[in-house]
Amino acid sequence: MTRPSAIANVTDAGFDARRVRDDFPALHQDVHGKPLVYLDSAATTLKPRVVIDAVADVYARDCANIHRAVHLLSQRATARFEEAREKVRAFLNANDTNEVIFTRGTTESVNLVAQSWARTFLREGDEVLITELEHHSNIVPWQIVCQQVGAELVVVPMTDRGEITREAFEEQLSSRTRLVAMAHVSNALGTVLPVEELTGLAHERGAVVLLDGAQAVSHVPVDVQALDCDFYTFSGHKLYGPTGVGVLYGRERLLEGMPPYQGGGDMIRSVTFAETIYNDLPYKFEAGTPNIAGAIGLGAAIDYLKSFDQEAVHAHENAVLRYATKALGSVAGLRLIGTAPGKVASASFLMDAVHPHDIGTIVDSEGVAIRTGHHCAQPVMEHFGVAATARASLGLYNTTEDVDALIRALHKVKELFG
Amino acid sequence: MMDLRELYQEVILDHGKNPRNHRFPEPHNREGRGYNPLCGDKVTLRLQLDGDKITDVGFMGQGCAISQASCSTMTQAIKGKTVEEADALFSKFHAMVMGEADADDDFESLGKLAVFAGVREFPMRVKCATLGWHTLNQALRDEHREATTE
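Structure tokens for the assembled complex are given below, as produced in the milestone run.
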């Protein structure tokens, strides 16, 4: 095997993945007596020490509820929470912090738009357009709201390489399309959708566009103003941040016109039994005590990422993915699923006569963590006529050595199943 | 350190690769459908029940080596058995793969099925080993719904 490690692990721009590994405590452990090789970042990324410390520090020092008390701890917690919102705003290049709503994650962000925007504004006969490669969390919320209002869910088919083409998209887009919801990057395949172009086409028809950025935020630049999308959703835990916190970006004009998603504390200005006046954006959509430490941890994750040249990080990940694609392709009897040009961070594959779950268990015994299953994207599996795939996915800490370990483990699979 | 050979015994690899009774028996009067939502594995089991005796049984479906081998060895073990005997086997098998405390002494009575004892060490794979048995349970009860491992 060729070993272009010097190229793939230390890029010209000076991003040194090997050094970065020191920042991630979880990487430095043995599993089943072997050093951990973590290739499941599409499921969740590991957390750098600064994020873990930020979360611990909230509980150890600034442990208070926000937007409420006059005491100092509450002031500090509130300030840090709102600083995190500003960090997210800058990260997405949103126009205003009013447009940044903290949620539990991508799934809740999508459900919020489905139940607040779509349920209010969609009528019988309207169409919601999604694509064949969506994660279940960008399918089911639309099925639910379509059933509620009598709208129709329309699906853009993907190609056998796992792409969504402009042509296929235009074929399904109609004057009845009111909302387009699509992944920025596919979780099962790694395909990057041409979201800027497709958003433009949707807007020409007057449709509102939601982008599911769960798999995109850590691998491609995101600028919601350049993308010109109406809603953008992502989860903190796939961006090196904590679980249980996510973001909904929404265009202010749209958010203003939407009713609250949930009722409770923080989302109200005044309550009487006769009438409740809702709070301003973004609090109108943040009922209940939020994941304060989670949001602050997400802010720390964004700071951490900003300490690197983002282009260099993405270039590094792409170099490791190219290396992985080539190495996997050289394993006899292995077939890659999803081969769209320009794909990022994930390699889904099948092996002759070995079920993905058996692959997963065997490589785990070698210390290699990959995901096996349908990746919450059963329509994608159906397209390729399989029940499941094995998926190796990358974070900024992965190196070509990790790929080599995976390949060695796959040879163990072949030995056992020979 | 876990021992993969404990899980992937030769018998399991063999039955996983070449499942026995991998066909639908004719005639048959019972059917069960099993589904593991975790991995998407599906199995359909058909059997002929004469009185309370399972006179023929076979299955079709796709899945991992563990689930295929489990279905295969199960069909061999229950053919010719009564419903009560099959139920008893399932109880023992279940106790074994779940690693229940008093299960240890019982392995011998399970015959070939004892090769699945290694599954105890792999909690994520218990459902693979029990999918076929849950499906059998459903077929014997003739419940017209899908058996799941959940």
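Residues 1-5 of chain A have pLDDT under 50 and may be disordered. The CA atoms of residues 110 and 138 of chain A lie 7 Å apart. Further analysis is deferred to the final report.
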